[in-house]
């Protein structure tokens, strides 16, 4: 009986202290840590169409179409299929593909989640956080080193 | 219907309080007077009674409407450190409208093998059995539909009809989970109805009557007076043991935690209500809340002095509703903190624990009352 | 069960390789050593014989894993045995069969856990186990044509029974007029199955007479996906998705440990400390969820404990998000280290972690008030879901489930990896063997994990700045020598999470097999719940803390 009363006292204590741990989204947007991986942003100006991101992607999320001079024509990314592992960002030698902190995206059908390069470019920064700046100290620390051929080429 | 007082068994009953808490005029009669319907003989009387029942029924339904979609969410949220509904209207109250529209506009899915008349009747039986009970509850401020001499027996009898509804729902749904839920419901109701009634009997021994109005009046007599503040002889104070017993048996009777085994969502999905959707679901859901409120009303009437409380007698209904909501709040509180007992343990507690205790309580009360008077 | 104990002789704890060879004797056709264990090739009809001897004479009482695979010229079943007393003692028993008649003797009479394993091997690879008591498919539907992991399997070939025409597995009703029992499908959609699990139950009144878990609804070909990925990059994101509730780093470590041993990669000490800290944070998050959902199963749908559990787990997830950049699917470990150093500013991270650790004892007290101290909770959980230690060993149970049955088995201590060896902490065991003990074990493990994290934070804070290497120098392309085989495991949130890998000389594994702790723990459910009531079945299922993503893989 004492245990039951103690349980009831515990929940009552929580009811009376008035504090809540849920927030009113979207009025109170949650804090996202600088390393958070959200929707991709693509910069055609930077991209050298080396196709490393396409090759490293574990589940074929990225599709690149080039013409016969190896100039880029299309850069499609299915953000609904992506598993947000950030390998594409890590292998990119020119920071052309980045994962922003932006997690707020919706669509009516899953096909709308196939973003082309213009849509990818238009993805806004989340709260103006540039992930490149926030991840700078460690970016690419692990891809450049080592012997052997690059297995994503 | 007679509103005349029946002579109590205890002499002390003669000393009624100065301010009568109970209106001797019942609601149908008053409505008859006000509208002039009493001049139309039996037909007018019936119409006045119907109007009065309509008012009381709607009052109770409105309360469940507030309790179901809104209060329950708010209370649960408070216990679990969350915010809960707050977008629609002041404090999210308009969620009630949104929810009713949502629930009523849903598709009514009826299982292929459902036993039709029983399947359709069950929600109505569940909801109406609780509503019927309110007919004899004195709610104060003149809201009292009828005051028959067997009021308490009547209210136990009609609320017991709900078990029939639950079994019908469980059996007619052609679903094994519903079946289990229905069987659990009936096993539980039989196990707890008896302690409930027996414990109620101990109150009858005190009051010397089954008439609800009389039971309330008997509780208005001061128990002790400390520094000018007189504490009324509410039976919860006179016999707290019976009060706790009744409270526990009542939680089991209405199937609330820790005795919510007939529903037991994590075990048997939703028990007897698994296959009900849309309007039928609303009816069952309303019925559940009505039963909680009816339980609260019985507790308030026979243990907490009915509509008694400080202030003018006109505030009776307010005090009464506060008491009912207190019981409702207790169900939600238990829900947040107390585990569900297993079905066999539940039956064991009922037959081996509560039944024995309630008989002990009955005998003790009888002895004490016999000695005192 | 006939164990060595019953015969009155204690099997030796230490067995040398020569002694093993002598024990198996002529029955060993050849040696096929794995990286971590001696391997003996035996004839398909000697399986029970050899395994019984290994169990009773040499003390290998834990069938950790069974891997089946098809080579060009043969099928192979590999029984990975180890000891509960000392898991570093391992032996592999390799059973080859011909391709045209892949029939092998079943090991089920020796190890009960072989039951499900051999069903899976039959289902995916196509080996028949002679004498198996229940030779059905386990992950794929009964009507499936072909064995997807066999070499000749044509993925393009349409199935005879399409998904829409497929017989509803929920349909058959085994009720017969003679008996008073009722057949009840619990799941695949049921509030308490924690995912898509289907439990075929036979009830006698409210008493459970027979339980048969039907799994495979969440089979996502995880093993095959890992066989399609490169060792270096593409496999690591997937372990997060096995036990997806929050044990990501623990799972990643299983792959990291196996691949690092396979390719002989060193991990810097600093990275090991970070790994240890991250893994224990994950363990706390996973155990919090286990406790919260168990409360849900026992209390009902509006219990406050579930919310409090989620609230406290949220704090851990915030810390993990700061560290790894994601809340559940971390992809933080890399072969040879971790992806990132601690987030800057480090002081802030340490402070946040310490705040959480400081607040933890108060929260644990609260859980004790709400859960373990509650009398109704006690009558619900005491002496229900009994799992005797000998039975648990037969079913290969590990993790909190085994430790709740008094089996002192924790790979963090017994088969050390990471930085656990250098830290002060204890393995928690309880002897109750019931649902209550399993709850207690998880509660105490949360506290032990907190101790580990605290020590890691202290270490990381004082780590010299110029020695903070998070990654060793790893070749860009890993191509381990062909036909190197390894089975390695770590202590994940639910128990021993092991991976068997065989390299085929390319940059992708030739065979990738996951030993899932949930798979084994779930297989013991019938032992725990038959003869008890439906609510106890649900509570036992909750106390096993299964994640269907890991059961079905």
UniProtKB/TrEMBL annotation, chain A:
GO terms for cellular component: membrane. Gene3D superfamilies: 3.30.70.3270. Pfam families: Fer4_7. Keywords: 4Fe-4S, Iron, Iron-sulfur, Metal-binding, Repeat. The keyword Iron-sulfur applies. Residues 38-67, 73-102 form the 4Fe-4S ferredoxin-type domain. InterPro entries: 4Fe4S_Fe-S-bd, 4Fe4S_Fe_S_CS, NADH_quinone_OxRdtase_chainI. One of its GO terms (molecular function) is NADH dehydrogenase activity. One of its GO terms (biological process) is aerobic respiration. This is NADH-quinone oxidoreductase subunit I. The lineage of its organism: Archaea, Methanobacteriati, Methanobacteriota, Stenosarchaea group, Halobacteria.
UniProtKB/TrEMBL annotation, chain B:
The keyword Disulfide bond does not apply. One of its GO terms (molecular function) is NADH dehydrogenase activity. GO terms for cellular component: membrane. GO terms for biological process: aerobic respiration. The chain crosses the membrane at residues 46-71, 121-140, 152-174, 194-213, 234-252, 279-306, 313-334, 354-372. It is found in: Membrane. It is a multi-pass membrane protein. This is NADH-quinone oxidoreductase subunit H. Keywords: Membrane, Transmembrane, Transmembrane helix. It comes from Natrinema salsiterrestre.
Automatic annotation (TrEMBL), chain C:
It comes from the Archaea. One of its GO terms (molecular function) is NAD binding. Residues 41-158 form the NADH:ubiquinone oxidoreductase 30kDa subunit domain. Its main location: membrane. GO terms for cellular component: plasma membrane. It is found in: Cell membrane. Keywords: Cell membrane, Membrane, Multifunctional enzyme, NAD, Transport. It catalyses: a quinone + NADH + 5 H(+)(in) = a quinol + NAD(+) + 4 H(+)(out). It holds the Pfam family Complex1_30kDa. It is a peripheral membrane protein. Residues 303-553 form the NADH-quinone oxidoreductase subunit D domain. NDH-1 is composed of 13 different subunits. Subunits NuoB, CD, E, F, and G constitute the peripheral sector of the complex. HAMAP family: NDH1_NuoD. In the C-terminal section; belongs to the complex I 49 kDa subunit family. This is NADH-quinone oxidoreductase subunit D. It comes from Natrinema salsiterrestre.
């Amino acid at each position: 009986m004492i245990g039951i009363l103690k349980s009831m006292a515990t929940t009552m204590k929580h009811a009376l202290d008035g504090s809540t741990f849920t927030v009113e989204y979207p009025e109170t947007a949650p804090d996202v840590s600088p390393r958070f991986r959200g929707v991709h942003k693509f910069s055609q100006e930077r991209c050298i169409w080396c196709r490393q991101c396409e090759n490293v992607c574990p589940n074929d999320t990225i599709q690149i179409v080039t013409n016969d001079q190896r100039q880029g024509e299309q850069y499609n990314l299915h953000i609904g299929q992506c598993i947000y592992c950030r390998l594409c960002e890590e292998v990119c030698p020119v920071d052309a593909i980045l994962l922003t902190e932006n997690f707020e995206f919706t669509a009516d059908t899953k096909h709308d989640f196939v973003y082309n390069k213009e849509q990818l470019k238009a993805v806004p920064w989340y709260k103006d956080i540039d992930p490149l700046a926030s991840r700078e100290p460690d970016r690419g620390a692990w891809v450049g080193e080592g012997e052997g051929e690059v297995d994503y080429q | 219907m007679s509103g005349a007082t029946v002579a109590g068994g205890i002499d002390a009953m003669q000393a009624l309080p100065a301010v009568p808490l109970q209106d001797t005029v019942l609601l149908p009669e008053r409505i008859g007077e006000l509208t002039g319907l009493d001049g139309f003989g039996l037909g007018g009387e019936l119409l006045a009674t119907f109007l009065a029942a309509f008012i009381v029924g709607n009052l109770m339904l409105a309360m469940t409407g507030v309790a179901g979609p809104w209060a329950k969410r708010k209370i649960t949220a408070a216990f679990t450190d969350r915010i809960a509904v707050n977008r629609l209207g002041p404090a999210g109250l308009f969620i009630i409208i949104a929810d009713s529209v949502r629930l009523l506009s849903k598709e009514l899915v009826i299982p292929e093998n459902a036993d039709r008349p029983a399947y359709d009747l069950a929600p109505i039986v569940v909801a109406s059995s609780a509503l019927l009970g309110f007919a004899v509850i004195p709610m104060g401020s003149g809201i009292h539909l009828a005051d028959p001499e067997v009021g308490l027996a009547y209210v136990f009898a009609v609320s017991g009809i709900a078990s029939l509804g639950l079994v019908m729902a469980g059996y007619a749904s052609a679903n094994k989970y519903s079946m289990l839920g229905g069987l659990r419901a009936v096993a539980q109701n039989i196990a707890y109805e008896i302690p409930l009634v027996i414990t109620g009997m101990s109150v009858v021994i005190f009051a010397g009557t089954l008439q609800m109005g009389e039971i309330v009046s008997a509780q208005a007599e001061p128990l002790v007076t400390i520094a000018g503040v007189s504490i009324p002889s509410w039976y919860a104070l006179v016999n707290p043991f019976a009060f706790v017993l009744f409270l526990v048996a009542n939680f089991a009777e209405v199937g609330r935690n820790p005795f919510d085994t007939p529903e037991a969502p994590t075990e048997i999905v939703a028990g007897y209500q698994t296959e009900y959707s849309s309007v039928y679901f609303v009816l069952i859901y309303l019925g559940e809340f009505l039963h909680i409120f009816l339980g609260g009303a019985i507790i308030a009437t026979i243990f907490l002095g009915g509509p008694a409380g400080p202030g003018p007698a006109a505030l009776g209904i307010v005090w009464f509703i506060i008491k009912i909501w207190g019981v409702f709040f207790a169900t939600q509180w238990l829900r947040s903190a107390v585990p569900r007992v297993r079905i066999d343990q539940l039956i064991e507690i009922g037959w081996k624990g509560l039944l024995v205790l309630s008989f002990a309580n009955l005998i003790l009360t009888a002895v004490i009352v016999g000695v005192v008077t | 069960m006939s164990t060595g104990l019953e015969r009155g002789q204690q099997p030796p704890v230490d067995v040398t390789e020569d002694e093993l060879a002598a024990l198996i004797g002529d029955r060993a056709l050849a040696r096929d050593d794995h990286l971590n264990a001696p391997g003996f090739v035996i004839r398909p009809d000697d399986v029970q014989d050899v395994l019984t001897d290994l169990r009773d004479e040499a003390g290998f009482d834990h069938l950790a894993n069974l891997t089946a695979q098809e080579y060009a010229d043969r099928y192979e079943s590999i029984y990975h045995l180890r000891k509960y007393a000392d898991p570093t003692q391992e032996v592999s028993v390799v059973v080859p069969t011909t391709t045209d008649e892949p029939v092998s003797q079943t090991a089920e009479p020796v190890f009960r856990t072989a039951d499900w394993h051999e069903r899976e091997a039959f289902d995916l690879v196509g080996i028949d186990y002679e004498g198996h008591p229940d030779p059905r498919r386990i992950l794929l539907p009964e009507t499936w044509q072909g064995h997807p992991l066999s070499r000749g399997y044509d993925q393009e070939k349409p199935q005879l029974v399409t998904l829409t025409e497929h017989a509803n597995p929920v349909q058959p009703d085994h009720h017969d007029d003679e008996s008073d029992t009722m057949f009840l499908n619990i799941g695949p959609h049921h509030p308490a199955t924690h995912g898509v699990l289907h439990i075929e139950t036979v009830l006698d009144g409210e008493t459970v007479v027979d339980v048969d878990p039907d799994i495979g609804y969440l089979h996502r070909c995880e093993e095959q996906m890992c066989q399609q990925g490169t060792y270096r990059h593409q496999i690591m994101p997937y372990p997060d998705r096995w036990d997806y509730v929050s044990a990501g780093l623990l799972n990643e470590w299983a792959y990291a440990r196996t691949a690092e041993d396979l390719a002989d990669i060193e991990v810097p000490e600093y990275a090991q400390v970070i790994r240890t800290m991250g893994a224990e944070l994950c363990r706390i998050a996973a155990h919090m969820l286990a406790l919260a959902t168990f409360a849900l199963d026992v209390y009902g749908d509006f219990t406050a404990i579930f919310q409090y559990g989620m609230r406290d787990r949220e704090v851990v997830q915030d810390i993990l998000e700061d560290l790894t950049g994601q809340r559940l699917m971390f992809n933080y470990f890399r072969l040879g280290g971790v992806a990132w150093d601690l987030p800057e500013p480090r002081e802030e991270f340490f402070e946040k972690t310490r705040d959480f650790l400081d607040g933890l004892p108060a929260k644990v007290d609260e859980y004790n008030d709400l859960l373990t101290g509650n009398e109704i909770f006690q009558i619900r959980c005491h002496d229900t879901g009994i799992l005797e230690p000998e039975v648990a060993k037969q079913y290969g149970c590990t993790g909190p489930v085994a430790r709740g049955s008094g089996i002192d088995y924790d790979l963090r201590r017994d088969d050390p990896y990471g930085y656990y060896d250098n830290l002060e902490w204890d393995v928690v065991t309880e002897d109750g063997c019931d649902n209550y003990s399993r709850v207690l074990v998880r509660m105490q493990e949360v506290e032990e994990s907190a101790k580990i994290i605290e020590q890691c934070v202290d270490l990381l804070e004082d780590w010299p700045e110029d020695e903070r290497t998070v990654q060793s120098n790893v070749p860009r392309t890993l191509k381990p020598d062909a036909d190197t085989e390894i089975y390695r495991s770590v202590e994940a949130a639910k128990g021993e999470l092991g991976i068997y890998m065989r390299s085929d000389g390319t940059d992708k594994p030739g065979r990738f097999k996951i030993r899932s702790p949930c798979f084994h723990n779930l297989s013991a459910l019938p032992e725990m719940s038959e003869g008890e009531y439906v609510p106890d079945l649900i509570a036992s299922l909750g106390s096993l803390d299964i994640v269907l993503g890991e059961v079905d893989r």
